[in-house]
Write a structure and sequence with these properties.
Length: 336
């Protein structure tokens, strides 16, 4: 039952901008391009802004989301939580979109992000020891792992990494990084790959994701290049790969734990995450009580809050049930 609540820019594979990506074409998009800023100090996710925009642009998205919620409810009633059998492996393509050498992050930085995701989604991250004792029994293995794709859409061998030179200084949450026509790069087939675009984001964004059931052409996750991975240009306090962990959670149909409201009636559609009034930031101390959720308070150690990377360390059984229902439903064509 739902509750209330740095590498060189001239690397192999670099693509030069086509005429449609040149200065003249990009100028047309300056109005929707937020200014680049210093590295963010607090977490800001653009997933809900992108979600509401897509709901208005694609009316069918609403009904697909409703059908998915019904499927999740049925799965929870049957008592199924994690995917059965061996872990599901999701093939990933990382699209690096860069203007400067620093933005053209290294293969090592990309691989460090994949390693971080695999620890977080299999609940093998050592820092899960930070979970307060009252919630340790809720820490759950998603039974999902991630791997850079080894075959491209044409069946040819690939590193799972593309690199695209852009003239844009930054991107926003309007999906412009996902199209070559607007200075980015088009997705690989989104029914077969998890597409992750890594770029400079403006407006203080660390990333954003598209929920299941949205337009295929823009499906995937976008992450700020200085918040991607655990080495290279990854910058404290977002240098442990948790921005991608958080956004992929959205891609697998998880909501923010406070339900994206400013009161206590919002819901993340998960029963085992306590009601919370607002997002938590930084590194809170336990307990942080809101919404009459004492004595334990907000589950700020959850990957779907807004705390620093070093403070978010767990998914719950209820969240895993939602992700499993997504992989058994609208994302069933991805992974093996």
């Amino acid at each position: 039952m739902a509750k209330k609540k740095s590498s060189k820019s001239k690397s192999r594979g670099t693509k030069k901008p086509s005429s449609s990506q040149g200065i003249a074409a990009v100028t047309a998009y300056v109005a929707d391009q937020p200014p680049a800023t210093a590295p963010p100090k607090i977490r800001q996710c653009g997933a809900m802004a992108a979600h509401f925009r897509l709901l208005e642009a694609d009316p069918g998205f609403r009904s697909r989301q409703l059908n998915l919620e019904n499927a999740v409810a049925r799965r929870m009633l049957t008592g199924m939580v994690a995917l059965k059998g061996g872990p599901t492996t999701i093939p990933v393509v990382v699209h690096v979109v860069f203007r400067t050498a620093a933005e053209n992050i290294s293969d090592a930085q990309i691989k460090s992000q994949i390693a971080a995701l695999n620890k977080d989604y299999r609940a093998t991250n050592p820092d899960k020891s930070k979970v307060p004792a009252v919630w340790k029994g809720l820490v759950t293995d998603v039974n999902v792992q991630f791997a850079l794709a080894t075959k491209d859409p044409k069946g040819k061998a690939t590193s799972g990494i593309t690199r695209t030179l852009t003239t844009r200084t930054s991107f926003g949450s309007n999906d412009s990084v996902k199209s070559a026509a607007t200075g980015g790069v088009n997705a690989w087939p989104t029914n077969k790959y998890l597409n992750i675009w890594v770029c400079t984001l403006g407006g203080g964004l660390l990333g954003y994701a598209q929920f299941p059931g949205g337009p295929a052409a823009t499906d995937g996750v976008v992450i700020l290049n200085t918040a991607f991975g655990t080495t290279g240009t990854a910058t404290v306090p977002f240098n442990l790969g948790r921005s991608a962990t958080h956004e992929i959670g959205h891609w697998l149909n998880l909501r923010h734990i406070w339900g994206d409201t400013e009161h206590c009636e919002g819901t993340d559609f998960v029963a085992d995450t306590p009601n919370a009034q607002q997002p938590n930031f930084g590194k809170p101390t336990f307990p942080h009580v809101t919404c009459k959720n004492g004595p334990n308070g907000d589950m700020f150690v959850n990957y779907m809050d807004y705390v620093d990377d070093a403070a978010m360390v767990m998914f719950t059984a209820g969240q895993v049930a939602r992700m499993s229902a997504t992989l058994a439903g609208p994302r069933s064509t991805i992974g093996n």
